[in-house]
Amino acid sequence: MADLVRFKNTVDGQSCESVSSRWLASVNPYTGEAWAEIPHCDADDASAAIESAHRAFTKGPWATMTATNRGKLLRRLGDLIARDAEKLAAIETRDNGKLYAEMHGQLRYMPEWFYYFGGLADKIEGGVLPIDKPNLFTYTKKEPLGVVVAITPWNSPLLLLTWKLAPALAAGNTIVIKPSEFTSCSTLALMELVKEAGFPDGVINTVTGYGHELGSTLVEHPMVAKVAFTGGDATGAAVYAGAAKHIKHVTLELGGKSPNIVFADANIDDAVKGAISGIFAASGQTCIAGSRLLVQRSVYEEVSQKVVAFAKSARLGNPMEETTQVGPVTTLPQRKKILDYMDVARGEGARCLLGGGTPDDPELAKGWFVEPTIFGDVSNSMRIAREEVFGPILSIIPFEDDEEAVEIANDTIYGLASGVWTSNIRRAFTMADRIRAGTVWVNTYRAVSFMAPFGGYKMSGIGRESGQAAIDEYLQTKSVWINLAEGVANPFVLR
Ligand code: NDP
């Protein structure tokens, strides 16, 4: 076996192994072989990282740094990410199997979050209140929360971290990052840039290892003020319950079962591309996957056939190669889960129109590949239409009219994203109003920006990432009352 690359954690500005000196292998999903090692941390490591972040929040240069200088540090980090975009993209592709083409695009765009929130850092303003009582000067301040624990998943480690890191730092918090143990390497590589940018020691710390071993320390530690989590809804619920023990702030970005709705008046070829990008990009391992394709009955056969034909031509292969369109899935347990859902769908009577298993190409044998899979004649009551699979499985569901489209679209415990394909402007706005989801895309799919708030309705989560509102998720408001009068009035009554 080739030598494994070792990535280390950063605590208090120092590069470090775990207290126990144990390591965990990180496996390349395309080769099925370990390529790197990360520290296998336990509760002691998590506590040390939290204490480091707490020291940096309460003492030292970060605590007294001006917001303008905080913003400059963020923008410098953005510049360094832009400089090393190729390197970071390659690490992430090796670690999670996502296409290099996609990762490269993500990494090139990622600095924008640091520029945007770096710019916002010194525009966090309080206000002077025209208070309704005499002889009082009353004003508000917005202050950081304290130590933020950022827990990130394996599907988009750096981007989903950036959505937390940039606003949390801009607001003046300090951070402990816990990436998924499947895909920690790019986060640990980013820490070299954090050091180079000149962030004071302890402001950004990392701890790697298993969520079930570290989770309760990270979420319940009394020095932690907030947990910002992205991942599955079951883990999200556990994090929420743990944080509730000490009334901590949370943002939760959880799963989805997003409807992508094609009306008969749509440009059908565009809608077909939208359906493909909604479910087969990143092998379906995105929280915003348009996994339910709702198609108006009059164009149901045409759309189904075109989507199948398009998906059939998708090239599976080495995610590092430019010509590859679908890479492997990230983890072995995830592949098993996806294959199990194919059996569930068949058992429920869904008609398999494409795929339905693993590819038989010997060149792909070592990798964790799953065929792009499409089920037709799906009813919204089937498990395949109700539960988040997080893989390249599309369920096509027919509907008659607008009323039924809305009913099916909203008949889900989730509400993260949605798509509408129509050439009718009235229908576009009406659907955007009626769909209960945090994002509605019309005649496009899978667009995100540092400027646009992102987050879930219903069980898809709490809070928003990106956009101006995101910084408020990392701030709290203080009211200050200054008495300008001589003496104190009657102490037995409310002033
Ligand atoms: P999880 O939700 O379990 O993992 C997300 C993060 O939480 C990881 O860093 C994980 O660490 C950590 N974690 C796990 N257990 C705890 C805990 N008790 N306390 C605190 N943190 C914890 O996702 P999985 O990897 O298990 O995937 C399960 C399913 O979740 C997927 O099949 C998919 O459906 C969904 N998912 C949704 C995502 C989204 O963006 N909405 C992203 C990822 C998954 P570790 O990996 O070390 O266990």
Short description:
The chain has 495 residues and is of the alpha/beta class. The protein has helices at residues 43-58, 60-64, 67-83, 85-96, 100-109, 111-120, 157-170, 185-197, 211-220, 233-244, 268-279, 300-312, 332-347, 383-386, 402-410, 425-434, 469-472; strands spanning 5-6, 9-11, 14-16, 23-28, 33-39, 128-129, 136-144, 147-151, 174-178, 204-206, 224-230, 249-253, 259-262, 292-296, 351-354, 373-376, 393-399, 419-421, 441-442, 461-462, 475-483.
Describe it for me?
This protein has helices spanning 43-58, 60-64, 67-83, 85-96, 100-109, 111-120, 157-170, 185-197, 211-220, 233-244, 268-279, 300-312, 332-347, 383-386, 402-410, 425-434, 469-472; strands spanning 5-6, 9-11, 14-16, 23-28, 33-39, 128-129, 136-144, 147-151, 174-178, 204-206, 224-230, 249-253, 259-262, 292-296, 351-354, 373-376, 393-399, 419-421, 441-442, 461-462, 475-483. Strands 15-16-17-14-13-18-19 form a 7-stranded mixed beta sheet, with helices on both faces. Strands 10-9-8-11-12-20 form a 6-stranded mixed beta sheet, sandwiched between helices. Strands 1-5-4 form a 3-stranded mixed beta sheet, with helices on one face. It has 495 residues and is of the alpha/beta class. The mean pLDDT is 97. The protein is built from 17 helices and 21 strands. The radius of gyration is 24 Å and the shape is globular. NADPH dihydro-nicotinamide-adenine-dinucleotide phosphate binds at residues 151-155, 178-182, 210-212, 215, 219, 230-232, 235, 238-239, 254-255, 287, 334, 337, 388, 390.
